[in-house]
Amino acid sequence: MTAHRPSRLLSVFATLFVLVWMVTAGFPFLWTAWGSFKVEPDFFSRVDWTNALTGVNTVRQTGGAFTGDGYYGAWVLNDFWAAALSTAIVTVATVTLSLILGTLGGYALARSGYRYAFWILIVALIFRAMPHITLVSGYLVPFFELNIWGTLTTSIIVLVAINQPFTLWMLHSFFLSVPRDLDEAAMVDGCTRFQAFRTVILPVMWPGIITTGLFSFLLAYNDFAVTAMLLRQDNQTMIPKIASFLGSIQNEGNVMFAVSSVVSATVPLFLLVMFFQRQIVGGLTAGAVKG
Amino acid sequence: MAEINLKGISRRWGDFVGVDDLTLHIPDREFLVLLGPSGCGKSTTMRMIAGLEEVTEGEIWLGDKMVNRLEPKDRDISMVFQSYGLYPNMTVYENIRFPLRIRKVPKDQHHERVMKAAEMVELTGFLDRRPAALSGGQRQRVALARAIVREPNAFLMDEPLSNLDAKLRVSTRAQIANLHHTLKTTTIYVTHDQVEAMTLADRVVVMNKGVAQQVAPPMEIYDRPANTFVASFIGAPAMNLIEGEIAGGTFTSPVLRVEGLPHPVSGPVTLGFRAEDVEVVSEGGNLSAPVYSVEKLGDSTMFAIRAKEDMIALKAGKAADMEIGETVHARIPPGACHVFGPDGQRVEAPGL
Amino acid sequence: MPHRSFLFFILPSAIAMILFIALPIGSVLVQSLFVEHGQILHEVETCSPFGGCTTETRVDAEATNALRAAQPLGRFNGLGTYLNRNHLATGEIAAFWSASGSWGQFWSRVSQLPFYRALGFTIAYTLVVTPCGIALGFWIALAVNRIPKVLKGPVIFVSLLPMIITPLIGSLVLYWMLNSRGILGRALQWIADDPTLSIGSSGPLTWAVLFLYGIWIAAPFSFVVFYAGLQTVPQDTLESAMIDGASRWERVRFVVIPHLVPLATFVALVQLMDNFRVLEPIVGFNAQARATSLSFIIFNDLKAENGQLFGSAAATSMMTILFVVILLMPVLIRTWRDFSRKPA
Questions:
Q1: B237-347 under CATH 2.40.50.140, yes or no
Q2: Could you state, in order of their start, the residue ranges of all structural domains in chain B?
Q3: Out of B77, B83, B98, whose CB is closest to A181?
Q4: Chain A partners of C28 at a C-beta cutoff of 8 Å?
Q5: Euclidean distance between CA atoms C97 and B123, whole angstroms
């Protein structure tokens, strides 16, 4: 694949292919972000698609080529800020708890030579494959009975548990890459198992923990099945809130609330990829190499 | 400082036997080397002493304490690992200080003790570097310093030189020998390199398949190997071993015939002799065969000859000059021969 | 690590998984055997001075609520829920079987039943999207490997977007472009010269769009993994293949692909699991009239406006779990074989 006998034709073809893919991957986001600052007749421009670019109707209705009406409607009139706050609480708590439980468990699995550690990983793999909605259908009746349905705490704990199989697998493979000698040296030097874990292993594990944290953030942030079913109207997170906008898009303008909240919810993800691209790519490959 | 007693210790994983019923007494201040091929159980033995591996059966005594159930931290031993086990997020200074810090040694002693240990291994110039910025030899010396800073009951060293290049290995070996001479701490040293074993050890334990084959000072292991395994494992090249029959002091095999052996046995045996005990002669001798390969070593010349199935190594002076395919004649003095019975165990010659 | 410290470290994680994954599976099993209480009815006789007496049937709201509170699970129904029309529909199938003249007729009637419709789409989605996503990812990886270095960073950045995007958001973004009022939907109408064309009105078109969405979010994952794998292709083997006279394609075929096979297995496993649970695009594309998935019909039962159908959702969930286990069976068997061959 290196520079021996580069074939110009093949390179041109490859570049074209990559360009097509980049447009496919990126353009929908660009289009939606642009359109979120227009009014509905421009965003869905039946008459002439260039209206979406020039914003004819937007100018007529609001006076400017761009409008923040969709954002105002979603964030202020429809309390999207509350959903954003819920999302922030749920994701931060879920990531923190997932990492605490996951580092402890992943460390144990990476360091135990016994067969049961292997079987725990296999069971975790099966759990990982369970569609979340099937588990949710098991939660509702007990949660109603225990009267814990509809609180953020319940959703957080459920998300932590549902993400454990994945977190365990990922951290387990990161811990495997830390040499055993290190814990053993620490224990001979006078540490208990837990001291060795805390003072010697954790400090060298930060890259792995950050990467795993990114992925548990994505799992919590992107969740729809759990939060849509386990939260009330008034403490919904962003994704179920967007879904509930969809129920009322028949009213003129409402669909723009959905569009602008979709764009708003994409921003954190966009920033995440921008700053942590290396870690995300590293995490995917680490999982692949070890898994 | 303490003596170490292993009383019939075994380590098994399911059906697999790692160490089988090993009993060993290691007196205070001894430098004991566990030597054997990989997978022979030498590392497992050491890790059981350190408390990193559970003991399936038997007892380990450090001084007058049975330590089977003690955590590694409570056994007061220190250990040097094959890949060093340095803490990558700490400087060299912090690495050496770590055992003092974690064991709550009074703070005011730390600096003095770290500096003393660093001086002994000549590391004073590197104290604020991180392990990643050190060469292999320097890392190994940090590991040594970290082990000696605490003045423990015993040192355990698990193949400490095997990740170093040949030249460094020689100088670090000398450093370890010197450290032991200065500190006089009981040391258990695991290696698969017989040169390390011969040069460092007060006594060597040769292990194979989880069983101690021979426990003796290095020269005795060399001169009087207890069985064919030890004979073939010790010495470079390994001892030549030839199967045949003995009767009335005469060994016969299709390849060679040696008369005048003092061993009072008869029947099938294995005859062993070392390459350097053989005399290459121009005529006669008990062995003649075509040369298979010639290796000029500088101070001497090694011939390999092929007699039937066996490859036999012969050592000659540096002047010896033969081509591949020429016939070489050799004389094997009966006094240099070792005889091993059908079970592989050494048969002693009377009067020795 | 000794058993005791292992337990200490794994315990929090294990408790979380047992309480919120293992127990719910049990709870689903129990719920699937029950069905919601019907309303309690009682007859009321009302007599008017002129018209005589009439008997009326009324809902006894108080008694109904009391019963529901006392037995929240509902009444025991055995396997009834599994066999009813909304699930395995054994009765209906038997009827179709005797009534249908041909296989085609039989299948088309079976595929109208809610459970089989959802199962059919879920399996089709999994089987189409998984290999296509992997193949597309592989080709992107090969292509990106050839383009100038400065472009690689931005390409990877843009490629990651569809993967990390919230599935519901991703499907909405595409839906708004593809529906009859969106830019791509309009383009389709123009190309087909049919102003009434809309993805929502055509079954095959809905399926195709959902598949495209699936490939769009699945390809980046395979791309990143394969791209990383390409960086570790053994150069020695590649060069000796060149010396041995292998053409460019033969090198890909005999060196690169074998090197990537373990990665492909991993990607396939992850993608199978993820694609089988497809739910959000059906919500986002508002496609339930044309396509439903197993996850979606569970979701729908639980979301039902007039009383959630726990029993029905649970029965579908149990069967979904069964399918997941079947899906994982090859992996489990292989792991088990590898494991029992390996000593200690």
A1: yes
A2: 4-228, 237-347
A3: B83
A4: 134-135, 137-138
A5: 87
- pLDDT the model gives residue B181: 93
* pLDDT value of residue B134: 92
Q: What is the mean pLDDT of chain B?
A: 90
Residue A1 domain-assigned (yes or no): no
Would an 8 Å CB–CB cutoff place C329 in contact with chain A?
Answer: no
Number of domains making up chain A: 2
* Residues of A in Cβ contact (< 8 Å) with C179: 44
Q: Does C330 touch chain A (CB under 8 A)?
A: no
- Complex ipTM value: 0.90
Chain B: closest CA distance from residue A114 (Å): 10
Residue in chain A closest to B155 (alpha carbons) equals A188
Closest CA to C295 of C281, C309, C307, C285: C281
Whether B102 sits inside 8 A of A195 (CB atoms) is: yes
Q: Which pLDDT band, with edges at 50, 70 and 90, does A85 fall under?
A: very high
**Which chain A residue has the Cα nearest residue B74?**
A190
Report pLDDT digits (tens) over B295-351: 888 888 898 988 777 788 999 888 877 888 888 888 999 888 999 999 989 988 876
Q: Is B223 on the interface with C (CB under 8 A)?
A: no
Read off the CATH number of the domain in which A102 is found. Answer: 1.10.3720.10
Q: Which domain holds residue C194?
A: 127-293
Whether residues A159 and A42 fall in one domain: no
Tell me the pLDDT tens digit for each residue of C158-203: 999 999 999 999 999 999 998 888 888 888 888 888 888 888 788 8
CATH of B4-228, one of 3.90.550.10, 3.40.50.300, 3.30.200.20, 3.30.590.20: 3.40.50.300
Query: Pick from B251, A45, A130: which is nearest to C187 by CA?
Result: A45
A228-232, Cβ contacts within 8 angstroms, sequence gap of 24 or more: A228/C299, A229/A133, A229/A136, A229/A139, A229/A140, A229/C299, A229/C302, A229/C303, A230/A136, A230/A139, A230/A140, A230/A143, A230/A149, A230/A150, A230/A154, A230/A155, A230/A158, A231/A86, A231/A150, A231/A152, A231/A155, A232/A150
**Segment 107-146 of chain C within 8 Å of chain B by CB:** none
Residues A170 and A133 in one domain: yes
pLDDT value of position A162 = 94
Q: How far apart are CA C275 and CA C271, in angstroms?
A: 6
**C115-139 confidence digits (pLDDT tens):** 999 999 999 999 999 999 999 999 9
C178 is a domain residue: yes
3-state percent breakdown (helix, strand, coil) of chain B, nearest 5: 30, 35, 35
Does residue C141 lie in a domain region? yes
Task: Please count the structural domains in chain C.
Answer: 1
Pick from B12, B70, B81 the residue to mutate for testing the A interface (most A CBs within 10 Å): B81
Query: C253 lies in a domain?
Result: yes
Residue of C nearest to A26 (CA): C158
Between A and C, how many CB-CB pairs are < 8 A? 295
CATH of the domain at C242: 1.10.3720.10
Is residue A4 scored above 70 in pLDDT? Answer: no
- B54 in contact with C, Cβ within 8 Å: yes
Note whether residue C14 is domain-resident: no
Compute the distance between CA of residue A202 and CA of residue C332 in angstroms, rounded to an integer: 32
Structural domain including A48 reads 8-67
